[in-house]
Specification:
CATH superfamily: Alpha/Beta hydrolase fold, catalytic domain
Number of domains: 1
Distance between the termini: 44 Å
Radius of gyration: 23 Å
Shape: globular
Number of strands: 17
Strand content: 15-25%
Strand order of the largest sheet: 4-5-7-9-8-10-11-14-15-16-17
CATH topology: Rossmann fold
CATH architecture: 3-Layer(aba) Sandwich
Amino acid sequence: MRRHHSPFLRCDILAAVVVVVAFAASAAGALPAVFRIDTGYVSGMASPHDETVTAFLGIPYAAPPQGDLRWKPPQPARPWPALYEAIVTGPACPQAPYPETSIYARSATDEEQSEDCLYLNVWSAADDPEEKRPVMVWIHGGALTRGSGALPVYDGTALAKKGVVVVTINYRLGALGFLAHPALSAESEQGASGNYGVLDQIAALRWVQRNIQSFGGDPGNVTIFGESAGSWSVNALVATPLAKGLFHRAIGQSGGLFGSMAVLRGAEDDDSAEAAGEKFAERAGAATLAELRAVPADRLVQLAGGPGAFQTRGVVDGWVFPRDVRSIFEAGEQAAVPLILGSNADEAPSLLGPIGPREISQLRALLTSRGMNDEEVDELLVIYGVESDDLVLPAFYELMGDQMFTWQMRTWARAHASASQPVFLYRFTRVPPGEVGEQYGAYHAAEIAYVFDNLDRVPGTEPAALDRELADTISGYWTAFARSGDPNHEGAPEWPRYQASSDRHLELGDEVRPGEGLCRAACDWMDLRFERQNEADGQATPSAGE
């Protein structure tokens, strides 16, 4: 939740506190609770979950992006003259609540919201700032419109106990994070707008490079990891030239950026990001950029989710993204880093809910409305084994999960492996015990609690001994990968390196075992259809526009 007290200690007692705490830390051989980072002195606290881990919560990594700084690249955080007590998380970025019927509403942030939201949290069990432990930077999901780095399931205590330094971050969301507009592009030195949320993530990684050694972390060994929109963000950071050298390994969980991206300007049918921004400004009643910056944040959030909703997506702007991500990977211009990539067995049901076709005729009509011809529909019905109406809804869920996630992750894995970079692919299949798992299976985001080894912080689940063992195994793979770029380590089942010829992967479920041929028939079909669409459209790969 938002801090309601001043985080600063008066200057007249700061020096005495630093001396006393430093002496005590030296005597105990523990990480000092007070030390200096580039913006001033900061103190943390013992994690409530394990006192051997020190937590530093709500540290500003950039200036508040409000007022004249709204829709501008993040600016440096202001130095503070006194001790900053990092013991309460910062506010979440402005966002709409989840629908009450969504399972994600149970775990959603209840923090106060503010445009002053560019904060991060650090967990470390280092005994000495010179230890140089591997660093893992978590980027939260939420469709780029919701979420926070401070959710209980993201608590870094358990991972820190495994020998890494954990960082979780906030970044601007929705229209406040991704609006493009001709006036914004005109005032930009790069002639670009949109992608402010991605620029926030890059600013956080630069903060890590400057400061993480004070927390016992190694700035030369940083792993970025994220889920859903956080995985989308990892894909973006691997692609953008602006993040080169800021991290050294990456993990993407159920989210990629190999689909459509907005073009900044000049798109056909007036579908450019700037055109969408102009329409959004009209709905806000703002004729000038100054008027748009004066619209209250909660009003912008409301407008973004209303009729003619603002579509939050990455923008090919010629700066953050010189070209679309697929083209960047095809040219081998992405960051040369090892990857872990994967998806879950039941991604779609928890996202789509009970909606969906129940009869073959309804499924045919739905697929036809999405631009498929009769032959393509027939092919899909065969691939997904739809022979009777009772098989329609499960097949629809599987199709949507493959299209939105499994195919994206396989495409990403193949593109990166073709550049001779190590890739390790997984499939999470464990159904968490409890009402949520019973209803939705191995649902979207179910693996997060296992990655962070925080099973007890997910409402509606009842972890069994097998779940705790699996959480220890998965978090062990993730931290081993952060150390060396290879998830394999002593005592764990072997995780084979990905090969496109066999689609080798590791199943993370009731058993942990290697597998082959993940999504082979369906994903091969999606590859072919994507190629046919590109040929039919006769379009070049998206660029920023003229």
